[in-house]
Amino acid sequence: MRRENIDQLVKVEYHQVVSCPLKDNQFSFFQIIYVICGEGFLKINNNTASYSKGSLILLTPNDQHNLEVIEHTELLLVKFSERYVKDYKWNSINSMECLLYGASYLSGCILQNKPDVILVDSIVSSLLHGINHPDLFQEELTLHYVNALIVIAARNISKMRVAHVASNTDKRVLDIINYIQGNIHDPALLKVSSIAHKFGFSESYLGSYFKKQCGETIQHYILNYKMRLIEHRLLFSDMRINEIVSEFGFSDESHLNKFFKKTHVMSLTEFRKTKGRVAMQA
């Protein structure tokens, strides 16, 4: 299996393919694939999905994938490193990398929010224009376009990852989810009483409302989202355990380990050693 790295934070490429350019590949970076034209199949982590014109696909680091081309295909590839995602100051999006890693649980096109289709088409056209007609300050413009694509990808993944939420769901539940994700590092703001007060609900009504809309309790959603963040810190960052303790507002390492063991039946250190090794070798 070929493993590819990039020597820069962001890289944009245009490709025309008539046969498979991505066969049993693995990248050390994120990659957004936009299908300009063509048809075929993309296999990601043993899940196969078709692609066609307008498909937007996100590959995460360590995904295993290959492309089967049926019809002449043109692709725009947007590659960006984990460090770029972590270091960039996303104004209102907390833990961007966790949202993006959510794509590893999905397959196929992530562009499900119809209003975003026009935005993505415009951004892709602008990136292609920059490739074909480079000009002054082109790098700065490219970074702005890439950032916009990343945010759109995160928005679509966020909506897709909320279990059982219908497309016509009450907008308030999406606001509640955004609030939870934005304040996931502050335990006081994640109390049901705090959330209920923020959105003008009683605590009992908030509980039944959230479960009806999302198919799970609000406490379960908060626990799972926080756990995914901690898992990604352990697997894909060099953060120390005490730094993770501080980030998520736990009183000490023992408190965090107790929380973590309820789900994983192993300590944070054991998880990092065993699962982290698997992730690097996969």
TrEMBL record:
Q: Which InterPro entries does the entry link to?
A: AraC-bd, Homeodomain-like_sf, HTH-like, HTH_AraC, RmlC-like_jellyroll
Q: Identify the keywords attached in UniProt to this record, alphabetized.
A: DNA-binding, Transcription, Transcription regulation
Would you say which domain of life the source belongs to? Bacteria
Matching entries from Pfam families are given as: AraC_binding, HTH_18
- SMART domains the UniProt entry points to: HTH_ARAC
Please give the start and end residues of each transmembrane region: none
UniProt-listed SUPFAM superfamilies: Homeodomain-like (SSF46689), Regulatory protein AraC (SSF51215)
The keyword Membrane is annotated on this UniProt entry: no
Q: Which residues form the HTH araC/xylS-type domain?
A: 174-274
A molecular function (GO) held by this record is:
DNA-binding transcription factor activity
Indicate whether Ribonucleoprotein appears among the record's keywords: no
The protein depicted here goes by the name AraC family transcriptional regulator
Organism of derivation: Sphingobacterium athyrii
